[in-house]
Amino acid sequence: MIVQTVAAPGRTILAPEPTFVMYRLIAQVLGLKFAGVPLTEDFALDVEAMLEAIDLHQPAVVFLAYPNNPSGNLFDAAAVRRIITAAAGLVIVDEAYAAFASDTFMGALSEFPNLLVLRTVSKMGLAGLRLGMLAGAPAWLNEIDKTRLPYNINVLTQASAEFALEHRDVLDAQTAQIRADRATLLAALKTLPGLTVYPSEANFILFRTPAGRATAIFDALRARRILIKNLSPAGGALADCLRVTVGAPDENAAFLDALRAVL
């Protein structure tokens, strides 16, 4: 809906990469140009490169996943503010994983008229509802709402969301437990030889295997009935990377036991 609202011949969507693949895909499907700006080796924003790309392309929309997907890290908040200030178009801070993160730009909406914050109930434990939320200046929201398809939020989803939010304490307790289990899993992964483990403020952890071994490790884990995500085929900064979702404590323990066996 956001990209549809600003779509016009010759316009550009910009985002750092690697990031959520749908930013590029949606831009291409709608006939817009897409400019990807590489992240640094540790998946941080290359601020100067981002600012140069904004100046060059004058993007209609800049997407910043916060925390980033698939790396799981929060970008430097001061760097994000510089990007919002420099951009003439919209800047979307996509906080899909906000339930697991220590920071948010929701409180900055009044500072920046071109800032919108995107959220979802998916990562709160309600992925099947497919319900998102966009916050920002009413003038922008009114324009974006014009692209809404009929019945895009069905009655059952609305009723389910209301019921879930009436019991928000249950969802909050669940995400708090996942954050605690993430810390335990992260610490355990850092003790394993040959791995580079990246910090995460999402519900998953990205780690780099020894060169050329990611797919073999992925296959060996799957043979032991442990399924994680193999990002190595994407190449570039994600070469040799695997990603594990934080599960229940027994699932995390089973993953660690299998990983130790195959390393």
What does this structure look like?
- The structure is a single chain.
- This protein has 263 residues and is of the alpha/beta class.
- It folds into 2 domains: 2-156, Type I PLP-dependent aspartate aminotransferase-like (Major domain) (Aspartate Aminotransferase, domain 2), CATH 3.40.640.10; 169-262, Alpha-Beta Complex (Aspartate Aminotransferase, domain 1), CATH 3.90.1150.10.
- It is built from 9 helices and 10 strands.
- The protein has helices at 2-6, 22-29, 47-57, 77-86, 138-145, 155-166, 168-190, 214-223, 249-262; strands spanning 12-17, 33-38, 61-65, 90-94, 115-120, 132-136, 196-197, 204-208, 229-230, 241-245.
- It has a 6-stranded mixed β-sheet, with helices on both faces. A 4-stranded antiparallel β-sheet has the order 7-8-10-9.
- Helix 3 runs parallel beside helix 4 and helix 7 (168-190) runs parallel beside helix 9 (249-262).
- The radius of gyration is 19 Å and the shape is globular.
In short:
By secondary structure, the protein is an alpha/beta fold. It is built from nine helices and ten strands.
Feature tags:
alpha/beta, 18% strand, 263 residues, six-stranded mixed sheet, Aspartate Aminotransferase, domain 2, Aspartate Aminotransferase, domain 1, 10 strands, single chain, four-stranded antiparallel sheet, globular
**Count of β-strands:** 10
By secondary-structure content and strand pairing, the structural class works out as alpha/beta
Give the spatial strand order of the biggest sheet. 2-1-3-4-5-6
Q: Which sequence of SSEs, written as H and E, runs from N to C?
A: HEHEHEHEEEHHHEEHEEH
CATH class of the largest domain: Alpha Beta
Q: Tell me the CATH superfamily of the largest domain.
A: Type I PLP-dependent aspartate aminotransferase-like (Major domain)
What would you say the CATH architecture of the largest domain is? 3-Layer(aba) Sandwich
